[in-house]
Amino acid sequence: MRIAVIHVAQETNDFNPIATTLRDYEAFGILEGPAIFEQLRGFGQIGGHLAAVEAAGADVQSVPLLRAWAVAGGRVDAHAYRFFADRMRAVLSAAGPLDGLSLQLHGACAAEGIDDVEGEQIALCREILGPNIPIVLELDHHANVTRKMVSLSDAIVAHRTQPHDPYDTGVIGAELLIRMLREGLRPTVAWRKIPLLSHQEQFLTSKGPMKVWFDWARAMERDPRVLHVANFPMQPWLDVAEGGWATVVVTNGERALAEALADEMADLAWSMRDAFQVREALDVDEAVRQADLAPQGLVVLSDTGDTVFGGAAGDSNVLLESMLRQGIRGRALIPLISPEAAARLVAAGEGADVTLPLGGDSTPAFFRPIEVTGRVRRVGGGTVRLDDYNHQPLINMGKTAVFDVGPVTLLISELRGVSGNVPGVYRAFGVEPSDYKMAVLKTASNFQYFASLTSQVLRVDTRGPGQSDIETLPWRRFPRPIYPLDPMQDWCGARAAAPGRSAD
Length: 504
Ligand SMILES: [Zn+2]
Description:
Blueprint: E1 2-9, H1 22-26, E2 31-32, H2 35-40, H3 44-56, E3 61-69, H4 78-93, E4 100-105, H5 117-129, E5 135-139, H6 147-152, E6 155-158, H7 166-183, E7 187-194, H8 208-220, E8 226-232, E9 245-252, H9 255-271, H10 284-293, E10 298-303, H11 318-326, E11 332-337, H12 339-348, E12 353-358, E13 370-385, E14 394-405, E15 408-413, H13 423-427, E16 438-441, E17 454-460
Parallel strand pairs: 1-3, 1-4, 4-5, 5-6, 10-16, 10-17, 11-15, 11-16
Antiparallel strand pairs: 2-3, 7-9, 8-9, 12-13, 13-14, 14-15
Helix pairs in contact: 3-7, 4-5, 8-9, 10-11
The structure holds zinc ion (ZN).
């Protein structure tokens, strides 16, 4: 049998006004054909897919068609949206006879004028493949599940942990597709939309209410009639008309069971709605003080509001400002995304003393530039190799400078890349993170790359497009009422009206 795989993914943050362009995808590489497996064997969701297909035996062949990924950011611009629609149509049309498709999309991507990018993409695939070729949709669990996604796919699976397990998701999706084709499994999908939103401080699946919710999904999967249970705590910066959390239950032809379990999962999430809202982040100055006073090891300061992995612009300077004003004694690492500053520092050259404004170039609604003076330690850029990043080995950071401002070492890059969230990106520019007392990470959950160096993680209550204070963000399109933006007490999954109820 011949199955195909397509992976096109971006997570959108509607409060970052800078559009995501084709260049953002190119920084991570846009691949077609055999190059996909050649470059990504063992990496990410593609790597998992390939492993599952190879383990299935010689009668299963996977046809790699298209792989493109961009780090989270603003809405995808119209040009990039059209480019991927055209490429998906072209590669699928030229693929020859197929028995199934593993369709690996993010699920929370929006483009200029299009709220449900993945819904449109799956519609395009369905149009080409026709109604009878199975499509298994593999999503990030921060996706916004829509009616189109459910009605046009045969089954939906999703990541089971935060931090993510994309490799496992690739395995699970491919194995389900192969079983459908070999054993005649008939996935029956029930789902509930849950009128809930929360910031990301409780998003780790290793603790708190998210652990309870996700552990319950795993418990349901112990029933052999249940093929997959996927919970979707939608990422909290997607301002779309069909937004909200969801749960999806896939059984083998058991409609009543799927519906009952979907009700149960939705009601469990709703019962914990206030636990998901608990905020733990520290005030900016207090977090910097605690990090500076920490007895030993590297302290991670999570810049929650400016989470680049959550689509913020990476241009916050509030922790830099606090460190310089408070005169920290330890040394600190801070990443900053600023095409202008990167170009200026690279032009000034290594050893140059430079005074320039830093921060706030992309999201002036949240940040104002501050003027600093420092010395350029190192300039470089282009594609760097990361040995400690599980998604892929090569990433283009664009023009990049290492810039020392007093006790702070800034990694200032033109492109978003992985920001400063992976130690290898500092090492690629000659900086050893373990020499530092504190490191600002532009993520609210992905501390795993720094974990072996880290003595503690302090979550900082910073403003920005990824801020925990979701109630003051300028929501425009989201369906109301939604908890906690509106008072709601009497919702329950079993009584939820369409689109919560699924049809056969
Ligand atoms: Zn995610």
